[in-house]
Write a structure and sequence with these properties.
This protein has 164 residues and is α+β, with helices and mostly antiparallel strands. The protein has four helices and six strands; from the N terminus they run ααβββαβββα. Helix 1 runs antiparallel to helix 2 and helix 1 packs parallel to helix 4. The structure holds methionine sulfoxide (SME).
Amino acid sequence: MSEKIIISTSNSKTEHYQQLLPQIEALIDLNCGWVANYANVCSAIQQYFNHWWCGFYLINKNNQLELGPFIGPVACTLIDYNKGVCGKAWAQSNTIVVPNVHEFEGHIACSSESNSEIVVPILHENKIVGVLDIDSKNFNTFDNIDQEYLENIAKILGKIPVNF
Ligand code: SME
């Protein structure tokens, strides 16, 4: 794998993702388990986009979402099924884009500075194993472009078994 992420100089979000995606594929190290790979992937996303918070919640043995590798301020450790944006994305097995977290019923505010959010489920062998969660300090940060590319990133991660 390459040791450096090359950052696109483009202002286009699509081009950013188009350059990031192959680098994420190259970053995946199948000699390692999921922790190393998930940790590198959230770091790579963050190097590109510099969001407020980027990380993972994984379904634990008590059937809750438990905080996994992330980059950003400290966050809530456990989230119940169907609670918050993460728990709802899990329950619905669908990406949820939240333009304004203050208008999302049941949103869990790990940080008062977050204003918009996207949560993307990660499936391994057709079974949801966790979610990718990204928070922004700005409103309306995430759209269908983020959804499309982050779902692709989730698909790449979904190839790696998670033992949690
Ligand atoms: N806002 C999330 C909780 C996790 S933090 O944003 C890192 C939610 O409502 O599920």
